[in-house]
Amino acid sequence: MAHHNTVFSQLLKFIPRHEFETLANRHHSGRSFRSASRWSQFVSMALAQLAGRNSLRDIVDTISAQAHRLYHLGSAKLSRSNLSRINDSKPYVLYEALFTKLLSRCQGIVPGHHFRFNHPLYSLDASTIDLCLSVFPWADFRTTKGAIKLHVGLNHAGYLPEFVTITEGKNHDITVGRTLEFPKGSIVTVDKGYNDYSWYKQLTDKGIFFVTRLKNNATYRIISRRPVLKSKGLSCDQTIEFTGIQTAKKCPVQLRRIAYRDAQTGKRYVFLTNNFKLSAKTIADIYKARWQVELFFKWIKQNLKIKSFVGTSKNAVMTQIWIALCVYLLLAFIKFQSGLKKSTQQILRLLQINLFEKRDLLALLRGDPPRDNQPDINQMALL
What we know:
Oligomer: single chain
Low-confidence stretches: 373-383
C-alpha cells in the first residue's frame, strides 16, 4: 500500500524549501534564531489561514495537537510568545517576496481569460480593511477609526492578483493606480474612483488601453458616430474630445464614448475608452467583467483571515495579509496544475477538513475514495 504524508505536508511541498530559505536569509534582520525559524512561522501562519484559526492560542493549540507530525513539515513548535515576537519584529517583506515567487509559478501554467482578444486584461480596484484605532494606532484613517487599504490589479487570466499594494486607509485609489506598470497592449478596467484625465493620457501614450465610466458632468463634443446594434442594448458609439478648459489640457486626445443598457437590471451605463478596434458590445462586456475583482475581495475576506488579526503591530498585520495572499496563490496553483473543475472555495474546504490526513492530495481533490479502506489482497486470499 502506498504511503502518503499528510495533506498539509504535500501542500507545503509546492514551495521549494531552498527557495524559501534563500528569501528568508535575504530578508532577515536582528539576532539569529536559536530554535525558531521563519519557516516555522510560515507553517504556523499558513495553517491558521487554511484551518481558520482566530488567535495565537488557537494556532499554537492546533500545532501542539499535531506535534508528532511537525518533523515531516520541517517545522518546530512555537510558543505564543515566540510566534508573536516573530510576527512583530521579523520583516514582512519576506512574504511579499514569496508572493512574487508563487505568482511567477502560477503565471507559467495559468489558463487564458474568456474573451476572444489576446490583450492581457486587468481589473483594478481597492478594498478597505477596517481596524480599531485604539488597538492599531499606526493605522490612522479617521478621527475614531483605523484602516488599511488593499489595492489589487486582478489579471483575468486565472483571476490572479498580479499587482498588489497595501497602503494606509487614507491613500486614494488613483495614487496607487498611477504607480502601476501594466504591460504594453493590455486593457485595464477601472471604476469612477480612478477618474484622472492626466492618467488616461499617460496610459494612451504608453500603448495601454483603459475602460471606465464617463463622469456625468463631463463636457465634450462629438467628432463622429458609428452604427450600433440596439438589439444588444447599445444606444451610441461615438468618438469624442473633451471641451472643458482643464480637462482638454489634461487629456487632449480623442476617446470613445459608448452607451449601453443592461437587459437584466435596466440600468444605463456610459463607458469611456481609448480602444477603437474592439466592438462596442465587447467594451461593455469588459466593464461587466470588472466585477471579478470585487468577487476576489469578497472571497479572501470570507475564506481567509485578513479582517481579524493575531498581532497589533503594523509588521504583524502585513505579515498576516501577505501570507494569506500566498495561501491564495497556493490554492490557485493546485487548481491550475491539476486541471480540476472544482472552485477555489471547494478546494479550500476539502483541505480544511483533511489537513492532517495521510492521503494523496490530488486523489483527495479528485474525490477518489480513500485506499486505506480497501482490504489487502493477501488478507483476502486467507479468507
